[in-house]
């Protein structure tokens, strides 16, 4: 590709840009971001070659990448498709997929769009958090691929492949349902744990001196960006509420066993959950 | 010290033995473990120099370290104190402190015992999981230090210092109350999250293909040893139930905001919890 535009120069967009540079897949990368500070940082860090306004950037690009919060992406995507050149493709990287697919469902240029979700990230945000290796050995999901042109899907596949990212495909609805459990729910549990301990700390100073690596690992996602996660929680509300309710039942089950000192049942329960080790290692 | 006995040759005891060897603090380390396989492994890995029965090991030691599940430690500690030589000290390393302090409260040799809890560990267990650096830059808590002889406390302090572990002191009750929030609760949330996703997986195959590093970090503690954690949950029941209830309220608060699509409130909530970043980095 000659020219690629990245909209949103944070952790995800910035890392994708650095990855494209490393693999030599893009000759020139244009950055678009409403935050002037992020634009300056992205230039200074060599993440992008130049900064442009949205429309002129899109008009001269072979590929446009949306790496902004999902609520913003749903506003910008239909606008881009309105004037997108015939052979230019646009992909998003958001954490929910049904919403964005719905807003362009009947757009005449729907086939120029590829809905994707790379399961990659850290708890950090902004251009300074970006690094080329973010997508290495991760999984990316392409949703509703049949609604995109074959050329567009092949291009996106080739890019992910070059970034060493494994691609799987599914419907937008299946994606949102499953991701509620293996990503969105763990953000909820981390935020709730973080807030629980922060509130206790008001009365019990220095409690964090006692926090070890276990707590740190469990609460890590509570550092995540509110701008990114607020719209995700709301958009995937229906699936997420189901996941939270299922989770609540497990918390209640453990609570009850502990309250009644059911040693054997607790042991049995923990042993069963240990099976997560096998599954994560596979 | 000439001779040290380690009772329990798993992750904690094994790592402590390796640390003592590395710092040259112990000339000889005797291992005691009811699991013959662990004894063989500990010998083969150079964690201990010999394996002995409990009593003869204690009788020839300068220091005895209890690194077994807390329910077992509470049975063994009073027995050891019954025949412990005058100048031999015993320390435990369990995750709850009120229980073990209570069982030896009136023992005539109480002063030979130092109650400690190193906030260090991984999700792995057994001698093969042990490594000398486990305690490096971690925090260890000595509880009810005034009930131990000064000589005993100074010895334990010196050892932790040599392992590069920072020591803080507090009462056994305060320890158990605080640790419920910053350690035991995060094990509950991890186990519940693990079980939630394992149950969903029964119907939705391949859901774990979509799990990223965020899920893995949040669920890591669900790999922890049931033998170690069952008695911890039960012994710290009272504090832990309070912590679970506080946590439940946070989950419910998030659930409600999500159900009502309260974007501003969610954003505000997540931003507040981001403060955990400042606290963990301090």
Going by CATH, the homologous superfamily of the largest domain in chain A would be: NAD(P)-binding Rossmann-like Domain
Which descriptor suits the 3D outline of chain A? globular
| CATH class identity of the largest domain in chain A | Alpha Beta
The chain-level mean pLDDT of chain A equals 95
- What's the β-strand tally of chain A? 8
InterPro entries (chains A, B): 6-PGluconate_DH-like_C_sf, NAD(P)-bd_dom_sf, PDH_C, PDH_N, Preph/Arog_dehydrog, Prephen_DH
EC number (chains A, B): 1.3.1.12
Organism (chains A, B): Flavobacterium agricola
GO molecular function (chains A, B): prephenate dehydrogenase (NAD+) activity
Describe the 3D structure.
The structure is a homodimer of 282-residue chains. Chain A has two domains: 3-170, Rossmann fold (3-Layer(aba) Sandwich), CATH 3.40.50.720; 175-281, 6-phosphogluconate dehydrogenase C-terminal fold, CATH 1.10.3660.10. Chain A contains twelve helices and eight strands. Chain A has helices spanning 11-23, 36-44, 54-59, 70-83, 98-103, 150-162, 172-203, 213-219, 226-235, 237-259, 263-273, 276-281; strands at residues 3-7, 28-32, 50-51, 63-66, 89-92, 113-119, 139-143, 166-170. An eight-stranded mixed beta sheet of chain A has the order 3-2-1-4-5-6-7-8, with helices on both faces. In chain A, helix 7 packs across helix 10 (237-259). In chain A, 53% of the residues are buried. Chains A, B: This is Prephenate dehydrogenase.
Chain-wise SSE layout:
2 copies of one chain form a homodimer.
Chain A: E1 3-7, H1 11-23, E2 28-32, H2 36-44, E3 50-51, H3 54-59, E4 63-66, H4 70-83, E5 89-92, H5 98-103, E6 113-119, E7 139-143, H6 150-162, E8 166-170, H7 172-203, H8 213-219, H9 226-235, H10 237-259, H11 263-273, H12 276-281
Parallel strand pairs in A: 1-2, 1-4, 2-3, 4-5, 5-6, 7-8
Antiparallel strand pairs in A: 6-7
Helix pairs in contact in A: 7-10
């Amino acid at each position: 590709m000659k020219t690629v535009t990245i909209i949103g120069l944070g952790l995800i967009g910035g890392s994708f840009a650095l990855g494209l540079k490393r693999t030599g897949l893009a000759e020139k990368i244009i950055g678009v971001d409403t935050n002037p500070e992020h634009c300056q940082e992205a230039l200074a860090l060599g993440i992008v070659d130049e900064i442009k306004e949205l429309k002129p950037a899109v008009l001269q690009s072979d590929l446009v990448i949306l790496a902004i919060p999902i609520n913003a992406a749903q506003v910008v995507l239909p606008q881009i498709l309105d004037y997108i050149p015939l052979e230019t493709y646009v992909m998003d990287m958001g954490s929910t997929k049904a919403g964005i697919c719905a807003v362009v469902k009947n757009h005449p240029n729907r086939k120029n769009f590829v809905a994707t979700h790379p399961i990659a990230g850290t708890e950090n945000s902004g251009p300074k958090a970006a690094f080329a290796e973010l997508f290495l050995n991760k999984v990316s999901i392409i949703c509703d691929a049949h609604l995109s042109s074959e050329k567009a899907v092949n291009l996106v596949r080739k890019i992910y492949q070059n970034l060493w990212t494994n691609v799987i495909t599914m419907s937008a609805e299946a994606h949102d349902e499953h991701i509620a459990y293996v990503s969105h729910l763990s953000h909820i549990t981390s935020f709730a744990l973080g807030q629980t301990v922060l509130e206790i700390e008001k009365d019990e100073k220095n409690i964090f001196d006692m926090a070890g690596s276990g707590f740190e690992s469990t609460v890590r996602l509570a550092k995540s960006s509110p701008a990114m996660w607020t719209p995700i929680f709301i958009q995937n509300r229906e699936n997420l509420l189901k996941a939270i309710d299922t989770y609540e039942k497990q918390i209640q089950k453990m609570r009850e066993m502990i309250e009644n000192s059911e040693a054997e049942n607790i042991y049995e329960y923990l042993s069963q959950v240990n099976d997560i080790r096998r599954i994560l290692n596979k």
